[in-house]
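Morning F.,

Quick status update on the modeling queue. The single chain you submitted on Monday has been processed. Sequence for confirmation:
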Amino acid sequence: MKIPIYNQKGEEIDTTELPDEIFGLDFNSDLVHQVAVSQMANQRLVIAHTKDRGDVRGGGRKPWRQKGTGRARHGSRRSPIWIGGGVTFGPTNQRNFKKIIPKKMRRKALFMVLSQKVKDNEMIVLDEIKIEKAKTKEMAKIIQNPKFKILNSKLLIALPKIDKNVILGARNIPKVAIMQAKDLNVLDLLNHKYLMFPKEAINIIEQTFKI
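C-alpha cells below.
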C-alpha cells in the first residue's frame, strides 16, 4: 500500500510503501473495543474508600453489660448501626479493575486502528518533523497548514525518538498530543482523529510491533 509523503509546507514530495501486515488489515470493532476497554480499566484510579468497623477508631470497650439493662446487647460502638461506626458494604481502595488482554490481541487491534486511519485518509506522513527553536508558533505553522485539512480536530504526533524542540513547541497547542512511535496504542489513536509522523517512524513501528 502506497501513501504520499509531504514536507512541512504541505507539499507532496514522494510516496512510500506501507507494510500490509500493519497498515492493510480489516477493522474488527469487537476486538478494538475489547482492547480499548481494557486500557481504560487498567488506567482507572481507585479513589473512593470507606472504613469498615475494623478500620474506624475506638470501640475497644463494650458499651454496657450484656444483661440486666433492658437495652439491646452491643459489643462495640464502632458497629455500622452506631453513629461514628464503620460503613457496611462501602467502596474500598482494594478493588481491582485490571483486565488482562493477550499481547497478540493488543497488537492486532493496534494494526487495525492504524489500517483504518490509512483508509480514512487520517494518517499524514511527513519527510521529517523538525523545528530549529522550541517555539509554539513554528509547530503551529506545520500542524495548522490548510493543506493537511486537520482544522480543529484532535491530532496525535508520533516521533521516532525524543525531540525536545518539537515536544516543547507542540505542548501548548490545543487538541495536539505527542508521543514516541514505539508507545503507540489503541486508546490514544481512537482519542485522536488524525495521526502525523515522519517517515522514519514507520520503521520504528515495524520493528517494535511486527511479529
